[in-house]
Amino acid sequence: MKSPVEQSTDDLRQSEHAFLTTPSGDELIDADLRYLRELPWSESSIGPISTWSRELLVLINLAMLSPQPQLFLLGPDSIIIYNTAYGRLLYDHHPLYLGRPIGMNEALISNAPAISRIVDRATTRAKPANENHVTFFFKNEDRLQETFLSATMVKLPDPLQGYHATTYDTTATAVQLRRKQSFKAIIDSCASANNMTNFWDAMLQGVSNEDGDMSFALLYRAEVHTEYAAEADCQRHVIDGQNFTLHRKVGSEESAQPQQISLLSNEPYIRCMREAIRTGTPVLLSVKNGTLPKDWCKEARQRCYGDDALEAVIIPSIDAYGSEVHALLVMGISPRRPYDEDYSNWIHSVHQFFANSVMTIKLAEARAFDDNVKRVAAARAEQILAQQREAELQAFSLKEALEAKRQQENFIDVTSHEIRNPLGAVILSADSISVSLSQIQELVKQSVSAKLAIDPNSLTRLLEDITESVETITSCSLHQKRITDDILSLSKLDSNLIEICPSSIKLGSFMDNIVETFRVETGRANIAFGAKQDASIKFHDVDWIQADSGRIMQVMTNLLSNAIKFTATVDGAKSITVRVGASETKDVPIFNDLIMTKPLIEPNEKTDLAQGDIYLWFEVSDTGCGMSATERSKMFQRFSQASPKTYNKYGGSGLGLFISQKLVNLQGGNIGFNSETDQGTTFAFSICALRDKAPDVLTTRSTILPFKRASASDSLSMLLVEDNHVNQVVLAKQLRRAGYTVFTADNGQEAFDFLKSSRHWKGHGKSSDLPRVDFICMDIEMPIIDGMTCTKMIRKAQQDGDITNHIPIIAVTANARSEQLQAAIDVGMDDGISKPFRVDDLEKIIEKVVV
User: What are the residue boundaries of the Histidine kinase domain, all occurrences included (predicted)?
Assistant: First the structure.
């Protein structure tokens, strides 16, 4: 018979492969997992799946569920395993490339130097292992498509043999930058053109200088004859709008094109030319519909990537308001780029420049004829200046885009580092726990065989090692959660999805909660920590308020986390103090000595707080290392920290203060700070609030006495409904240790069937032989019947009298949006909690709903 330790180890090993067969809830991921497990791994260099290490399986499981493209290079021949998100980037090559050595994947090894560089850097760690905007060509519906990828890579820790890379599709950014440069090249080339002939040459020269998105160009100019204008005593040019001559081309030297064309012809491409002139807009030619001549396709063979063109656009020299066409510019579309909305918008920008420039030159040549033309020419001259300013603005925008790209890449590097570092510690700690358990198992075996007591010193040492590893895993997981929460908060703020939800708060209790939340963390760092109320609280008679305690706590958490981080490392006495005060005006006195920020966004006018009658201010002061003038100038910038050494020494994503500023602004307040090197730092912020009265004792949840379990006989009995087997087993074990009686169900149907067999179903009476359910923990997303539907069924049965009493239901969801929690409450659930959570957090919810 196996010991409990041996049985636990066997159960763990059986569950290591569960993710390969357990439905993920995503059909595409499930299909890729099925393809992955059905590959002939026994014939590969890394062997069958059953021989893969637990650590590798955990990493592959996390990667397959991630929405971020990720891949692994495993074994001596670098076998590729990638997730569904990465498969989307491969288009037609997916899933063929999955499970094959990289050397067999032609589309990837076409850029072998970049792959070799990043692998070498990940191996030696001499430089950051990343590559940016690497060009690949993947078949999409049997047509090669240009794709730009950026990636960061780490070498897997021993004994795992291989590498892990996170990939980012940067095609949109790279193509946008290239098109801005191409447009700028055209503008610069045409800057000095002062007549039509010079402008035609300059336009084609600008196209010739850049070829990423212009595979060829043909410029057909209208034929012109001259006549004498007596009123101006000069020759005047008269445009023939039916016949055009090839001025010049940019493309293959081997391909010949017609020198003259007539718009009276009925060729498909001629009809398109007439349409472009009629509408004053670019018109698309395509091989598919027969409008692009085959000889024109060959013009692209010496540009772009040497492929024949498949599409082109006709760009007329007039816009929708023009009347006389001077030229038609035929511009080839890159054969390896789709002609999508972004491409079309860029072509329209080129067209606008082309038409405006022709009109400007035309008006300049007509100034000698009459005063009216002169006035129009002046307007066009102003337009030229506007275009020049626009060109300068575009150049500045290009610089800004490059800086934003640099900041984003730096943020990606920092965030990847902040997530992967704790991941390495988690893996090592898990290994340590496994080794310690094996050693305990060995001690038990030796004790049984020798019939001697277990050495208490050895057992204590091993248990201390396990405890330390568990604390490390918990700390690293919380750190990763904070990074993820920051990124999600930033995304919601950028999308205007953050809502301010006021609730009734007792200010004194809220401050006590802040102290209790950070008491342990400050105690570990030997920091004296306390909170106090300013005299203005009593003066303005502030006790209960209406405010969003969650958003205030989020800002306080960011400020206090920074204060602890920068105070813990200093020598001498260390302290952090939190103060709260009140003011009836927005310009609170405490801001007088601080460096204030400019509001980034307006407060949410849809909340009751928009008409608040009191401003609360919060101050966090520490005796930490402080900041220099240079470091102070970088405060509250997105993705920014005080200096590079700040990140190297303290870590962090550089988002906390930026998010805090926006949250404070949303609540109608402002935030500022002051700091000097070695003299500590003070942050203060204000929010708009409403005075409130103490809630009715008989109607508020806060007055419900905390429930207690005096003994095991008084323990609560619960039904845990969770479709993820691993989560279900782990949570059930934790809850049983906490004294709960736990029944489990894999989906809503099983949960409802279980209630039918319980003492709560009509006709069963209160027999002690039947299970009792004091409350239900209900997952939202489940197969067969989901949590929402199951809750509706339970409440309907309760309403019909089939269920004899109200059973509280707590929603458990991985979606942190407040809208989903509200939707759960609307269908009949009593409260909810978001994953990930700890049992202590869940028990606080249980205390609220179970009376």
Answer: 414-691
Copy the structure tokens of residue 723.
């479709």
Phi-psi group of 149: left, alpha or beta (phi > 0 → left; psi -120 to 50 → alpha; rest → beta)? beta
Q: Which residue has 């003070």 as its token pair?
A: 682
Phi, psi of 555 (to 5 degrees): -65, -45
For 794-807, the pLDDT digits (tens) are 999 999 999 999 99
Query: What is the predicted pLDDT for the residue at 788?
Result: 93
How far, in Å, CA of 667 to CA of 737, rounded?
Answer: 42
SS (H, E, C) 287-329: CCCCCCCHHHHHHHHHCCCCCCCCEEEEEECCCCCCCCCCEEE
Scanning the structure block, which residue is given the tokens 């909690």?
Answer: 833
Residue 446: name the closest of 438, 10, 7 by CA.
438
Peptide bond into 128 cis (omega under 30): no
CA distances from 194 to 168, 190, 316, 360, 790 (A): 45, 9, 19, 9, 76
Q: What is the DSSP string of 384-410?
A: HHHHHHHHHHHHHHHHHHHHHHHHHHH
The candidate with the shortest Cα–Cα distance to 327, out of 319, 315, 344, is: 315
For 149-204, the DSSP string reads EEEEEEEPPTT--EEEEEEEE-HHHHHHHHHHHHHHHHHHHHTT--SHHHHHHHHH
Question: How far apart, in whole angstroms, are the C-alpha atoms of residue 541 and residue 543?
Answer: 6
Of the candidates 748, 740, 759, 766, which has an alpha carbon nearest to the alpha carbon of residue 850?
A: 740
Tokens of 660: 């805090």
d(CA 846, CA 830): 10
Picking from 66, 792, 849, 780, the residue whose alpha carbon sits closest to that of residue 480 is 66
∠ CA(375), CA(381), CA(387), 5° rounding?
145
First to last CA, the chain: 44
Give the helix, strand, coil percentages of the chain, each rounded to 5.
50, 20, 30
Q: Tell me the torsion sign for CA atoms 105, 110, 111, 112.
A: positive
**Rounded distance between C-alpha atoms, residue 335 and residue 353, angstroms:** 24
Give the amino acid at 844.
K
Tell me how far apart the alpha carbons of residues 313 and 846 are, in angstroms, rounded to a whole number.
66
Model pTM score:
0.45
Contact 639, 407 (CB under 8 A): yes
Check: CB of residue 76 under 8 Å from CB of residue 45.
yes
Cβ 276 vs Cβ 322: under 8 Å:
no
The closest of 256, 275, 287 to 314, measured between CA atoms, is 275
Between CA 401 and CA 176 the distance in angstroms is: 10
Length of the chain: 851
Query: What is the rounded distance in angstroms from the CA atom of residue 402 to the CA atom of residue 408?
Result: 10
What confidence tens digit (pLDDT) does each residue in 89-137 have?
A: 999 999 999 999 988 888 888 878 888 888 888 888 877 888 899 988 8
Q: Which amino acid is at 685?
A: F
The DSSP symbol for 541 reads T
Rounded Cα distance between 60 and 83, Å, is 8
Query: How far is the C-alpha of 302 from the C-alpha of 216, rounded, in Å?
Result: 9
Instruction: Find residue 163's DSSP bridge partners.
Output: 73, 155
Tokens of 708: 């207690």
**How many other C-beta atoms are found inside a 10 Å radius of the C-beta of residue 392?**
11
Of 445, 547, 560, 442, nearest to 503 by C-alpha is 547
Dihedral sign (CA 164, 479, 619, 510): positive
Beta strand 311-316 pairing with 327-332: antiparallel
Residue 634 to residue 642: CA distance in whole angstroms:
6
**Beta bridge mates, 617:** 581, 686
Cβ-contact 722, 731 below 8 angstroms? yes
Q: What are phi and psi of 462, to 5 degrees?
A: -65, -40
Which tens digits make up the pLDDT trace of 656-689? Answer: 788 888 889 888 899 999 988 888 999 999 999 9
Structure tokens at 309: 């063109």
The one-letter amino acid at 413 = D
